[in-house]
Design brief:
alpha+beta, 5-stranded antiparallel beta sheet, 5 strands
Amino acid sequence: MVPEAEVRDVLVELQRLRARVPLLSGALAASTDGLVLAHDTPGVEAEGVAALTAAALGVSIRMTDATGRGGFRELLVRGDSGYIATYAAGSSAVLTLLAEDRINVGRLHLEGRRAGARIGELVDAALPRTERPVTPAPPRPATAPGRTLPQRPT
């Protein structure tokens, strides 16, 4: 699980996000299996939202796989009274935002993606190496970005 210091950092990030985007009514960070990491969700049962997020995430991952759309990035649900947006947050967490109907959806996505990336960095850095999925590092270019060296036949 994520150490207490990192959980506090995640909560601070959620609170900053809600301060920046006034029409957000709640923000929750959870593990991909539905456990609450941190939340700022007044009037909403965080554990229930985290569990539902995990279920929606499972369906979303299957949909992106089945349609060849790559890995999960985000999910947006619109109800009569507002939005629920879920963003990938590193390799083992998600960020779920609750927003009022009047929110600018472009701003919601911009801020949600940024916060998801920051929370993902915090959570992934806190996980012991044995819990992280093993992914090979991408090769580093030998020259400046955008330039490639000619390859010699071997």
